[in-house]
Specification:
The structure holds three protein chains of three kinds.
Chain A (H helix, E strand, L loop, with lengths): L1 E4 L17 H5 L4 H30 L9 H36 L7 H19 L1 H4 L41 H29 L12 H32 L13 H35 L6 H15 L14 H13 L1 H15 L8 H23 L2 H7 L3 H31 L5 H27 L16 H31 L37 H6 E3 L5 E3 L3 H13 L5 E3 L5 H6 L1 H11 L2 H20 L6 E6 L2
Antiparallel strand pairs in A: 1-5, 2-3, 4-5
Chain B lengths: L10 H23 L1 H4 L2 H21 L7 H32 L1
Chain C lengths: L15 H27 L9 H4 L2 H26 L3 H31 L8 H33 L2 E3 L3 E3 L3
Antiparallel strand pairs in C: 1-2
Helix pairs in contact in C: 1-5, 3-4, 4-5
The chains are: A mainly alpha, B mainly alpha, C mainly alpha.
Chain lengths: ~650, ~100, ~170
């Protein structure tokens, strides 16, 4: 029986695009799975770029008194490394997971607003390209009496104010070129992208759940997506305004953050970190969710304390809004604030600890299956705890005034972001690989990747703890021979290159397995959540018919009963059920209507970079071009017909 | 396809609400002229009146009062979060000026 | 979105698009909250240069503020008319809302031009910057609103009509 796709043939100017395959199908897609895949590949590309920037930094720091990079170039590299990793690598890889998995985990066909979803993606692409166009069009500019412009190669024509852009250093006086404008405006566009997807996910989780999928039956990954969406929604508007203030200060003569005009540089710090701290929870919560899916599956036990993990996740999100000034202990904030924020920072360790103990409780007594996803999940727990412990030491204000701006802090956040977020993400990439591609990855290569990465990671970031305490300062392009910091810095650089090697192993595994991997069954891990009840690779319509959920871990309970001692006993009907699901999953009996593709999200998205260039170069024509794109995009979107949808029908032969 | 057909105020009710809003605006303007009388309380009273108008517009004109509880809580949550965060920022800047200026 | 009858469309009972709009609005609270906080922090920092109190015209601003407030009345009347499926009335009230908004904007442009001529401009001092950015963003929102309202009015005339459920009913 063949499937026929019949787009509605109404002919008016707003007829929607109808390609199923090929280049245009990707450009106009609103399918959450395609969008997730695009996010994933693009974000991985930027992960490599950010990694390259890190390696360049490490080459400079491998030896004392090195002149591989000039100061200006060094500053540009660490700024771009941080900005890229946060906004162009970790956030969008998490977005890839949210996009692909969320509808599958709640039993939906797509998200609440499919075109808005596409808009988020294209806005992100537009923002990322705009930011990186600084290397082509941007200028570093030399402040009067500052370090010399002539030393700046093209590598230095990038934002150099740190990923946090502290004022007035990142203002027009000390960063007179256009590079920091690329930063401020680029981040603005990226912020809008994430804000839009936050709305989408909140409404999707609230409204698009399948029958019986009560909130407390949702998988933990879905819950963490929900928490992240809240964090994004309420923190991004603050930095949007702050970035407007930066652009106005740099371009239009205001002085929001400049003392000589009556402004306040600490205000920038407040506004930035009001966003910046929730941001780091945005970076880690998806990994928490992924790990909460992997551990039960590979321990063959239910998640210990599901409700506690859910509430702890929201506890972290909520308290996460109340700790921001711990990034400002050494700035001129009042002692009362220092005390208050020190306290709240200690408090946030509590729900985090709850989660850790629950994960340990999940593993305890389980029958562990040490495949690659599980290795990364276990590694996550170890590395994240180390990072978390150093984090708690920062909450003690007097201690932090010694630690701040040293490599001790760099060690902390790389343990939680690399050993935490990135390990979780790699675990997830391996875990869901079979679902997305229909093939199994190579387990041996996966193991090699894991061990190389763990060794590399600890070699790179471990020594940074004592380097920092010995006095190596952050964001400084060179250190003197007399400091005796050379030996461990060399080890760190070697570790960084081992990390690079491990990534190459990962990429080799990916490319090989996608081509030659063993065909994957649709439930290769004997998993618990409903995304495993549909065929691998996922059919475009997701579920043939809406699943009816009877409990948490519904799929598991369909396959297993419990004996008197609470152990899982496979039901006799389990195998038959799997066959039935497979048959049903590939052959939907009813007509399924899917949301139509659209040209307008990408059109609208690319209006914003035009406006960005218009502001920097004071070009009315560029501004008009941008406005036209925005108008065409939004009006086309509003007017194009909603009713025409694809029909997937079975043609009886 | 709307699943919620909540009761809406009638046009007459809307006009009445608009008159109330007009009166509040007139009060605000009057306060400006009476500033010398009211003194320090001017700012707080003006903010109070503005908040009152905001609540009326959001609650009745934008229909939030009649919506599902969850929507109400969501919006209120955002407001409370904003109030707390910005109060802390303002307090901190005020105290820093006190300690360090 | 799928209209498959087997799919429960709204797990919460609140219409999806309405829910989306309220989620967006609660984030706008933080957006304007930041602007207002900055305003409150920098209020009174009138150095160097002109104070706002030297240039403003309270009667004028009050009338213009009142006009905008009345546009919120005409907006709900438009919504009310649409609920009763009265296309003609809906368009009248939509146009009225747009007109009132446009008058407000015209008033604001006039006022700001006056301020500018008296020396109170964007970069005069930190307070003036905050003032203009705050009222400017507000004005931008009003402007976008006016554009969308006129668009709805025009589309409502040329196409088959407007509807609460489907937005625009196209001629087809």
């Amino acid at each position: 029986m063949t499937k026929i796709i019949e787009p509605d043939k109404r002919t008016n100017i707003f007829r929607r695009p109808s390609s199923e395959y090929g280049f245009w199908s990707w450009v106009t897609t609103v399918d959450h799975k395609k969008i997730g895949i695009m996010y994933g590949y693009a974000a991985f590309f930027f992960l490599l770029v950010g990694g390259l920037e890190a390696l360049i930094l490490r080459i400079q720091l491998a030896q004392p008194d090195s002149s591989f990079l000039s100061a200006a170039e060094y500053n540009a590299m660490f700024t771009m490394h941080g900005t890229t990793m946060v906004f162009l690598a970790i956030m969008p890889i998490s977005a890839a997971f949210f996009n692909y998995l969320l509808p599958l985990q709640i039993g939906a066909r797509d998200v609440a607003f499919p075109r808005l979803n596409a808009l988020s993606f294209w806005l992100w692409v537009a923002g990322g390209l705009f930011l990186y166009s600084t290397f082509i069009f941007g200028t570093a500019g030399a402040p009067e009496g500052g370090y010399l412009a002539e030393e700046v190669g093209w590598l230095g024509n990038a934002p150099s104010g740190g990923w946090f852009g502290y004022q007035p250093n990142a203002g027009f006086k000390y960063s007179p070129g256009t590079a920091m404008d690329y930063w401020a405006i680029g981040l603005q566009i990226l912020g809008i992208s994430s804000l839009v997807s936050a709305f989408n996910f909140i409404v999707t989780i609230l409204n698009m759940r399948t029958k019986g999928m009560r909130l407390m039956r949702m998988p933990v990954f879905t819950w963490m997506t929900f928490a992240v969406a809240f964090l994004l929604a309420f923190s991004l508007p603050i930095i949007a305004i702050a970035l407007f203030y930066v652009t106005f200060d740099r371009q239009f003569g205001t002085s929001f953050f400049l003392t000589e005009g009556g402004g306040d540089p600490i205000l920038w710090q407040h506004l930035f970190w009001l966003f910046g701290h929730p941001e780091v929870y945005i970076l880690i919560l998806p990994a928490f969710g992924i790990v909460s899916e992997i551990l039960p599956t590979f321990s063959r036990k239910p998640l210990f304390g599901y409700a506690a993990i859910v509430f702890a996740g929201f506890g972290i999100a909520f308290v996460g809004f109340g700790v921001w000034a711990h990034h400002m202990f050494a700035s001129a904030i009042s002692p009362v604030a220092q005390a208050g924020f020190g306290l709240s920072t200690m408090v946030i360790a509590v729900p985090t600890g709850v989660k850790i103990f629950n994960w340990l409780g999940t593993i305890w007594g389980g029958k562990l299956n040490l495949k690659t996803p599980m290795l990364f999940a276990l590694g996550f727990i170890g590395m994240f705890v180390i990072g978390g412990l150093s984090g708690v030491t920062h909450s003690i204000v007097p201690a932090d005034t010694q630690q701040t701006d040293t490599y001790y802090i760099v060690a902390h956040f790389h343990y939680v972001l690399f050993g935490g977020a990135l390990f979780g993400i790699f675990g997830g990439l391996y875990y869901w690989f079979p679902k997305v591609w229909g093939k199994m990855y190579n387990e041996t290569l996966g193991q090699i990747h894991f061990w190389l990465m763990t060794i590399g990671m600890n070699l790179t970031f471990g020594p940074m703890h004592w380097l920092g305490l010995q006095g190596q300062v952050r964001r400084t392009w060179v250190y003197a021979e007399e400091t005796n910091l050379g030996f461990w810095n060399l080890i760190v650089t070697i570790g960084a290159f081992i990390l690079g090697l491990s990534i190459i192993v990962f990429m080799a595994n990916w490319i090989y397995s996608k081509r030659k991997g063993e065909k994957a069954p649709f439930d290769p891990w004997d998993a618990r959540t409903i995304e495993w009840t549909i065929p691998s690779p996922t059919p475009v319509w997701n579920f043939s018919k809406a699943p009816d959920i009877k409990s948490l871990d519904d799929f598991w309970h369909a396959k297993y009963d419990e004996d008197e001692e609470g152990r899982a006993v496979r039901k006799d009907t389990a195998d038959a059920l799997l066959l039935e699901l497979e048959e049903e999953g590939l052959n939907p009996k009813e007509v399924i209507e899917l949301p139509n593709p659209s040209y307008f999200p990408i059109i609208l998205a690319f209006g914003l970079p035009f406006l960005g260039y218009a502001v920097i170069y004071r070009s009315i024509s560029l501004a008009l071009a941008g406005i036209v794109l925005l108008l065409v995009g939004s009006f086309g979107w509003a007017i194009e017909p909603l009713e025409e949808e694809f029909s997937m029908k079975e043609e009886e032969e | 396809m709307s699943t919620d057909h909540k009761e809406h105020p009638t046009p007459k009710k809307y006009v009445q609400i608009a008159i109330v809003l007009g009166v509040l605006t007139a009060l605000e303007v009057t306060l400006y002229y009476l500033e010398d009388l009211v003194g320090v309380f001017t700012d707080s009273l003006l903010i109070f009146l503005a908040v009152g108008k905001y609540v009326i517009v959001v609650g009745w004109f934008m229909h939030l009062r009649f919506e599902n509880k969850m929507v109400n809580r969501f919006f209120a949550g955002g407001m409370i979060l904003a109030l707390i965060l910005f109060a802390i920022v303002m307090l901190e800047r005020g105290m820093a000026n006190f300690f360090y200026s | 979105m799928s209209s498959g009858h087997e799919y429960p469309h709204e797990s919460t009972g609140v219409e999806t698009r309405k829910l989306g709009m309220w989620v967006f609005l609660s984030t706008e609270v933080l957006f304007f909250g930041t602007l207002i906080t900055t305003f409150l922090l920098f209020k009174g920092r009138n150095f160097p240069g002109i104070k706002l109190t030297d240039v403003y015209d309270i009667p004028f601003t009050s009338i213009s503020s009142f006009i905008l407030l009345m546009s919120s009345l005409t907006m709900v009347l438009a919504h009310n008319a649409l609920e009763n499926e009265d296309q003609e009335k809906t368009r009248v009230w939509l146009l009225a809302t747009a007109m009132l908004g446009a008058i407000f904007l015209a008033g604001q442009i006039y006022e700001f031009t006056e301020f500018y001529h008296k020396g109170f401009e964007l970069s005069t001092n930190i307070f003036s910057s905050t003032f203009y950015v705050l009222t400017g963003f507000h004005g931008l929102h009003v402007f976008i609103g006016v554009v969308f309202l006129i668009a709805l009015w025009a589309i409502g005339q040329r196409q088959q009509g407007l509807s609460l459920d489907r937005g625009i009913i196209l001629n087809s």
